[in-house]
Amino acid sequence: MTDTIQSASERRRARQRPGDRVFTGTATGAGILILVLLAGVAAFLLIEAWPALLAPDEKIPGGEGLVVYIWPLVFGTLWAAVLALVIAAPLAVLIALFITHYAPRHFAQGLGYIIDLLAAVPSIIYGLWGFSVLAPATTGLTRWLEDNLGFIPLFAGPVSTTGRTMFTTALVLAVMILPIITAVVREAFVQTPRLHEEASLALGATRLEMIRMAVLPFGRSSIVSGSMLGLGRALGETMAVAIVLSTSGGVTFNLISSGNPSTIAANIALEFPESSGIAIDTLIASGLVLFAITLVVNMLARAIVNRSRDSSGAN
User: Fold this and answer.
1) What's the pLDDT score for residue 111?
2) CB-based contact 305:284 (threshold 8 Å)
3) Number of Cβ within a 10 Å radius of residue 12
4) How many CB atoms lie within 10 A of CB 227?
C-alpha cells in the first residue's frame, strides 16, 4: 500500500510542468523572504536597542528610566489609534452598505473611486489639512464639549486654543484609515451570495432585516480584518500626528486639552534629528516596542478573523 502511494506521488511530480515548478519555487521563496526580512528587522531593533535596555535610569532621556520614558508613548499610540478606529469603523461599514445596497450603480461606482483615492493622499497632506483647517474648526466644538460635558474626564478641559488636541488627531487618523476599511468591507458585501439575500427577501424580510441577517454575518470576518488593517495604519502613522498633535508627555484621557501624550512614531520623527548616543538607542527601543505592538495586533486580528469566518457562513 505504501509503495502504491509513493509511486502515485512520484507520477504526480513527474507530470508537473516546468512552469508549475518555477511558480511553486517562486511563491515559496517569496514567503521565506518575508520571514527573513521580518526576522532581520526584529534583530536590528533588538541589537540597536540593547544599550538602552541595559542603561541605568539616569542615562535615559528624562532621567527616570526606559519604562517611564516609553509608557506615555505607548499609551498615546494606543489611545489615538483606538479613537480613530472607533470613529472610522462604523462609518466605513455604513459607507460600504450604502455603496453596495442603496446607491444607484453609476453613483456608487463613482463614490467608490473617490473613497479609494483618499488612500492615495500622502499622510503629510492630511497633517497639513488637520493643522490648518480641522484644528481651528474644532475649537468651537471643544468649548461646547467643555461647557456641557465637562463633568466627563474626556472633555474636562482646559480647552486648547489652537485645536491641536487628541480629538483632532483622532479625526485625522479616522479619515486616513477610512478608505482602507471601506475597501475591504465593500468587497465582502459585494460577494455576499445573491441567493442568501433573495431568500431573506422572499421570506418577508425588509431590506434592513436582510442586511442584518444575510450581509453583515457574511462580511463579519472582513469587517474585523479591515478594521485591524486600519488600526495597524493608525498605530504607525507618523507625520500627520507629528504635525497636528500638541504634546506634553503626560498620560491623560482628556481629548480637548493641549496636554497630550505623543505617539511612538511621531516622537521618533521629532526627536531623532537632534539625538545622539544613548538617546538614539532609546528611540530605537521605543521602535522595538511599536514593532511588538503591531505584531501582537496582527496576530490577534488573524485569530479573530479565523474565528469570525468559521461562524459567518463565508465558507
Assistant:
1) 84
2) no
3) 9
4) 24
